[in-house]
Amino acid sequence: MTDQQGHLLALKGVSKRYGGVRALSGVDFACRNGSIHAVLGENGAGKSTLIKIISGVVQPDEGTITLDGKQVTIPTPQAANDAGIVCIFQELSLMPDLSVADNISITTPPRRFGMINRKAQRARAEELLARVGCDDINPLTLVKNLPLSRRQMVEIAKALGRNPKLLILDEATSALTSADVHKVYAILHGLRDQGLSLLYISHRMHEIEELADTCSVFRNGQHIDTFSKGDRNDEQIVQMMIGRELQNVYPPKPIRNAPPPATLEVRKIGWDTKLSDISFTVGKGEVIGLGGLDGQGQRELLLALFGVLRGVSGNIVLAGKTEHVNSPAQAKSPAVGMALIPEDRKTEGLMLPMGVGDNISMAALSSMTRGLVVDRAIESKKIAEMVAKLKIKFGQLSDPVATLSGGNQQKVVIAKWLLTGARVILLNDPTRGIDVGTKQEIYQLLRDLADAGTSIVLYSTDYDELIGCCDRVLIMYSGRIVRELDGPEITEANIIASSLNLALTGQAAAGGHA
Amino acid sequence: MKDLRLRLSQSVGMWVALLLFSALYILYSSLHPKGWTVDVLVQNSNESFALILVSMAQTVPVLTGGIDLSVGAMMTLTNCVASNVVSGSAIQIVEGLLLTLMVGALAGFINGCIVVYGRIQPIIVTLATGAVYLGIALFLRPTPGGKIDDDLTWVTTNAMSEMDTTYGWFPNGAPGWFAHGIGRLPVPMLLLLAIILIVWLPFKNTVTGRGCYAVGSSEGAAYMSGLNVGRSKLAAYTLGGLFAGLGGLYLSIQTGSGNADIPQAGGYTLQSIAAVVIGGTSLFGGTGGAFGSLVGAMVLRAISFCFRVFDADSPMGFLANPLLQPIFEGIILLLAVSIGAARVFRVKNRLSLFT
């Protein structure tokens, strides 16, 4: 079934060019049966292009692809599927208006008399959902009514239903809850033991440590190295990825003797069944983390503060003045001065077809007018400031923001909100799917903003981030704040224990109060 | 039980439209002096058939996230074709019927080809082809006229029992189940039922048919899932053409002639979009279906029926004024669509209004 070296898939001398940009140059890459192969690299390193070529989305300019020892071309995603190559993408490939069962069997549903056999299709969906440990999902539910983390499990079930020989996971666990992540690990290990070949792309080092047998590092469109897990340590790997040494990922936190004056006071906020009795304060220049398991109300809390939710009880006080925020427009007004970096930059953060410059000035346009019209001179000056401050990389200001890499897109979103001069910045998992280098820049930026007096509320699914960035961390569980961790109390053990709403062990609790 | 509730909640728009139609039609029938009789039902069915088919024709492209501004034109074109070919011997009539439907499907297929292979937005493609189709219709029938087989006209625009009296189905007298059951139902209604059962439901349950929903829901995801996006779209426009052809054919049969009536074509196109929306199909694509549009078209028709039965001398008499009818139709259309949009008031997360 495989070539002489036991490879299922082998790429030789593959290059791809987009316009003037070389996305891949002369890449040799191979993966074997019965292994989980991690592909590492910063955003823009060429990982996505590699995946797109293997899954038939784009065609290489040069080079050959060998599958099962035979040279092949993969003209379409359909052809890739037929050849047993199945992809789970970072941008989900589910149809939101169709039911879970429809989605799972979208291309090859069970048929009777040429028509879809709904009963068999449903049974198939139930079986596959059970396989990924999601038997609680009703196959008739529309995908759009499922939370993101469940959708990702459906996506995995869908991929399994296609009986892949080569399964590609592109940041496929980025939205999963930690309980699901472990189920997925078990499934992936099981698939490997059945002799499948898995390609795994992730920015989370600990995932790779837990999963991969083999790692390949890409940088600037080139294949740098392939090695077995354990042959290189984390530092070496990171160094290979960024081509320079990575020092202090997180900037130092300031040492405070007294709590800073409060900028934002949240008093007894409640909403629907998702939030209840939430009170906390954010001081001037403080970075407050929101932690806990995914889906405990953190996202809703940020949306409630930003005026997106209707029927929120309780109130918020900004610099001593009670404000009623009923819309994002009101939230960003100078009187309130809030900004929200949303969860999904592609739908809530950016106007993808519009230019980089237009996106950056979008939220602050009303402060750049002369009379009724936008003052172009002021606008371009402010845009240039932001581009320089955040080191955003792009071709031209008028390029559609969709053409930027993920990290640069996120920088555009942040730039857009910085321009409003907000005094409270809310961030919803801002580093999801972003490369190490850009992450580090964002951490530094947050700390700089805080030092300049901005108050920051950061929700992150990555515990390391909470530990590294935050002055205090609020742990949410089932719509409430169950614990506040301050300074040295912010440890992984404490975060995990409070996230599961466990009573803290004497050791950890004592350490916190020292 | 839970499944049933889930299914119902996924087609709220259609159920609201069905309730609205029932309310309007009950009002109409109780005000009509001959209400609740087969005659009235037959007449109403005849008047609704073409609009229902054109609305169903509009639905399929809309489900894929497109739109078809040529449905009225395709109806008019097939109407003119039919007026030239649906007469003569029995075989000639059958050939004429098939030819008419093929012209409709071909017109839709051409729309689909330009949309899929030309990669041009459906709205502009169908605006242009619609004008072309109307031009051909005018060429075929510069002045109203033509001929449709009289027997065919008679039986398809009456109750089922006329089938028996015209073609002598039951030489020994009709059995009870026919005379008192099926025989009392209007033929167009049964034709509609047949079209839904034989064309729409099977199509919806094929991979290509479900591909239409998938494409409308998220074209990128459909492509990445390995679906044949082009084939689904092509099928959607072709099926739209076939439905429009059925509508045009019926219009010829009903009127016994062909008429390249350009304003009428435009009117039908616009009303078809209204019917699609009232029937619960999203203009963004992905949700809804042809049955909903059937109900939507009936709501539109029921509104205009109601205006006929208000007594001009009663306090509500001003409603019977034909000059005011477009205003009221417009207002009721807005109200009907608003009912479907009422969920806005229950949404607690304003962000979900935009997704």
Record the SSE blueprint.
The complex is a heterodimer of chains A (514) and B (355).
Chain A: E1 7-18, E2 21-32, E3 35-40, H1 47-54, E4 62-67, E5 70-72, H2 77-82, E6 85-88, H3 100-104, E7 111-112, E8 115-116, H4 118-131, H5 148-160, E9 166-170, H6 178-193, E10 197-201, H7 205-211, E11 214-219, E12 222-228, H8 234-242, E13 262-271, E14 275-283, E15 287-291, H9 298-305, E16 313-318, E17 321-323, H10 328-332, E18 338-341, H11 345-349, H12 356-361, E19 369-370, E20 373-374, H13 376-390, H14 406-418, E21 424-428, H15 436-451, E22 455-459, H16 463-469, E23 472-477, E24 480-486, H17 492-499, H18 506-513
Helix pairs in contact in A: 4-5, 13-14
Chain B: H1 2-9, H2 12-31, H3 38-63, H4 71-85, H5 90-118, H6 122-140, H7 150-156, H8 161-167, H9 176-179, H10 187-204, H11 207-217, H12 219-224, H13 229-255, H14 262-278, H15 290-309, H16 325-341
Helix pairs in contact in B: 2-15, 3-10, 3-11, 3-13, 3-14, 3-15, 4-5, 4-6, 4-13, 4-14, 5-6, 5-13, 7-13, 11-13, 14-15, 15-16
In words, what does this structure look like?
The complex is a heterodimer of chains A (514) and B (355). By secondary structure, chain A is α/β, with parallel strands linked by helices. The model of chain A is unreliable at 505-514 (pLDDT under 50). In chain A, the strands form 6 sheets. Chain A has a 6-stranded mixed beta sheet with strand order 6-9-10-3-11-12, sandwiched between helices. In chain A, α4 crosses α5 and α13 packs across α14 (406-418). Among the domains of chain A are: 7-242, P-loop containing nucleotide triphosphate hydrolases (Rossmann fold); 261-336 and 469-514, P-loop containing nucleotide triphosphate hydrolases (Rossmann fold, 3-Layer(aba) Sandwich). By secondary structure, chain B is mainly α. Chain B has one domain (35-290). In chain B, 71% of the residues lie in helices and 0% in strands. Chain B has 16 helices and no strands. The longest helix of chain B is centred in the first third of the chain and has 29 residues, at 90-118. Chain B is globular and about 60 Å long. The model of chain B has no long low-confidence stretch (mean pLDDT 90). Classes of the chains: A alpha/beta (514), B mainly alpha (355).
